[in-house]
Amino acid sequence: MRKSYSSEFKLKAASMVLDEDQPVPEICASLDIGPTALRRWVEQVRKERAGSTLAGTKAITADQKQIQELKALLRQKDRDIEILKKASALLLLDSKDHSL
Fold it and tell me: DSSP H helical segments within the chain, as ranges?
């Protein structure tokens, strides 16, 4: 079974590599994680700190998490607006039919 790690854990592990210059094998041993996972987290945090995210991945850093949440909220609002536009158009058509 594949282990699941929190964003906080991933960020801590990646920060140990990026900010504290600790070697990947040492961190893997101390945190009981695989080197492939750690390298992937390090790369993701590096990209997120630069202001970009990988499509389809859940953000690790707080800023990128907030950006993803806001983008999701914006998509929902856009869907809501489209629904309201269609409902308004239907109501307008219905009221015109009744006025004839």
Answer: 7-18, 24-31, 35-49, 62-99
For the domain 7-99, what is the CATH code? 1.10.10
What are the backbone dihedrals phi and psi of residue 60, each rounded to the nearest 5 degrees, phi first?
Answer: -105, -45
- Taking the C-alpha atoms of residue 55 and residue 6, their distance in angstroms, rounded to an integer, is 19
Residue of 4, 3, 23 lying closest to 13 (CA atoms): 23
What are the structural domain ranges in the chain? 7-99
The pLDDT tens digits for 71-82 are: 999 999 999 999
Q: What is the pTM of this model?
A: 0.68
Residue type, 17: V
Task: Please say whether the beta carbons of 5 and 38 come within 8 A.
Answer: no
